[in-house]
Amino acid sequence: MTLKERYAGVLGYFAQSNPNPTTELTYSNEFEILVAVILSAQCTDKRVNLVTPRLFAAYPTAAAMAAASADELLPYISSVSYPNSKARHLQAMAAMLVDEFDGRVPDTMEQLIRLPGVGRKTANVMLGLVFGQAAIAVDTHVFRVANRLGLAHGKTPLEVEKALTRHIPAPLRYNAHHWLLLHGRYVCKALRPDCLNCGLTAWCRTFNSSFKT
């Protein structure tokens, strides 16, 4: 099987089975989704969705969050992973939005990754989800699934991102991020991939290598 055939099969399956994927984080504006994505690092979306309603009610804007201290934010997010560092990041991120971007979330990679708590993965999520750009965010799920399927052979998230970007057409990149993420979350899990109930076995390099007769 050629790499082109593998991509065509995988993308075709996802397009048919889940034509309109999107994030499982709940939000109502660009500031809220930025906060939610920062909180979701090494934490489940379900847990983040439990804490953000109270957080957003108390601090609905960048200005409101910037005026708070990290200690004041901490009780609202204490049940997420690494709450102390995330509280500091949220306060500093909000302050930078107010000081340098008039309270608005910037729409370029260069500006986004300057924000405290925002790395390349979070920036790509924002570029694709909020600003409609052809970006692929590589989290642990996307990294694992892309390597297992044989779509990429990268040893780092950036290497996988470059490979996926090279082979996935721009109009499909936003969807592809969610397709691979959701597949990793619910089917191709880290410890126990559910290969026998996976619709991608025909194109999966790992499955076909493991089950050769």
Description:
With 213 residues, the chain is an all-alpha fold. The chain has 2 domains: 3-21 and 136-210, Endonuclease Iii, domain 2 (Orthogonal Bundle), CATH 1.10.1670.10; 30-129, Hypothetical protein, domain 2 (Endonuclease III, domain 1), CATH 1.10.340.30. The chain is built from 12 helices and no strands. The protein has helices at residues 3-17, 30-39, 45-58, 62-66, 70-77, 83-101, 109-112, 120-129, 140-149, 157-167, 173-186, 205-210. The two termini are 17 Å apart. The model has no long low-confidence stretch (mean pLDDT 94).
Brief descriptors of the model:
single chain, 213 residues, mainly alpha, Endonuclease Iii, domain 2, Endonuclease III, domain 1, 2 domains, 12 helices, 59% helix, elongated
How would you summarize the topology of this molecule?
Elements: H1 3-17, H2 30-39, H3 45-58, H4 62-66, H5 70-77, H6 83-101, H7 109-112, H8 120-129, H9 140-149, H10 157-167, H11 173-186, H12 205-210
Radius of gyration: 18 Å
How many separate structural domains? Answer: 2
CATH topology of the largest domain: Endonuclease III, domain 1
The class by helix and strand makeup works out as mainly alpha
Distance from first to last alpha carbon: 17 Å
The count of strands amounts to 0
CATH class of the largest domain: Mainly Alpha
CATH homologous group name of the largest domain: Hypothetical protein, domain 2
